[in-house]
C-alpha cells in the first residue's frame, strides 16, 4: 500500500511500518501457531540444523542428512516421552484440574500449565461479571519495571464451560490462559473440558512424521506414484485404528495377507530357471547348490613409500646399532680367551678387555 499510493515520505506510516513487529502479532493471535512467529529468534533451530548442514553442503549431502536430522529429532522426542512416563513434577495446589493435567501432559507442558495456574491465583482477580457469560479479569503485570493493571475480557459459556479470552493464549499457543483458570476456580469447575486438552501435548503422542520413510521418489510425480501415496495414507490410517487392538490387528493382517496372495502376479517356470540368483529349485522348493566361482588370493600391490631396507637412517638409529654390536661381541671374546688359557681363572680375568 505504501508503494502503491507513494506514501514513502509519510512520517507516521514509516514509523508504524518500522515497528510492525509490535502490532502485527495482534492480528495473528486468534490463529493457532503453537507459539511460533516469524519475528522470533530461532537460535535453537539454527543450532539444530548446524549439526547436519552448512553453507558448503551439496544437494546430495542435504538429501542424505535430511534422514539423519529426522532420526535425531525422533530419538529426542522418544527420550522426552520416556522422561514424561518415568518422572513427575509434583503438584503445588489441591485443585483436581492440576492433577488431571499432570497425568495427561508431558513434563514441559505441565510445567507451563502449572505456571499459568499459579500466576493466575497470585496476580489475577475477577473484576466484573455480566449475566454469568461476560467476565472482566484484572491482572497485575510488571512491564519494564512498572506495575500496570491490564483488563482481559472473556466470553464464557456456562453450559459447555468453554470461554474465549481476549489474550488468545489458547488459540495462539494451545495452552489455557490464567484468566480462564481463575474463572474455573471461582465457578468450582474441578476438571478441564476436553477441548482444552490438546492431543499434541499428551504423553506418548504418535506423530505422523515418525513413520516417514526416507527414499528417492524421482523428479516427476507419475500416476503410479500418486496411487502409491494414496494407498500409503489409507494403510496408515487403518494401522493407526487397529494397532492398539489385538483382535482387530489379527483380522486386518489376515485380510491383507489374503489380498497379497490374490494379487501376487504368477511367475513362469522359464523365468525362474533362467534367473537362478535366489539359489532355489523351483520344482522342489529346496535350496539348490550352484557352483561358486573360484576365489583366489588378493592381488599383491606395491606398498606406498620407500622400501624399508632402503630407508635413510638418522644418526640416532646408527648409534644404537653400533652399541648393540659391541654388546653382542663382548661375550664371544671372553669365551675365546678362557678356552685358550688353561692356567687358571686369574689369567683369564687379566686378559678380558674392559
Characterize the structure shown:
By secondary structure, the chain is α+β, with helices and mostly antiparallel strands. Among the domains are: 179 residues, no CATH class; 39 residues. It is 47% helix and 9% strand. The protein is built from 13 helices and four strands. The protein has a four-stranded antiparallel sheet. A hairpin with a 2-residue loop joins β2 and β3. The termini are far apart.
Main β-sheet, spatial strand arrangement: 1-2-3-4
> What does the largest sheet look like?
4 strands, antiparallel
Q: List the uncertain runs.
A: 214-219, 267-290, 332-354
Helix amount, in percent? 40-55%
SSE inventory with pairings:
Layout: H1 11-18, H2 20-23, H3 43-50, H4 59-86, H5 96-104, H6 107-123, E1 124-130, E2 134-143, E3 146-157, E4 162-165, H7 169-173, H8 178-186, H9 223-242, H10 246-263, H11 269-274, H12 315-340, H13 345-351
Antiparallel strand pairs: 1-2, 2-3, 3-4
Produce a short descriptive summary.
This protein is of the alpha+beta class and 354 residues long.
Question: Which key features would you list for this structure?
Answer:
354 residues; alpha+beta; 13 helices; extended
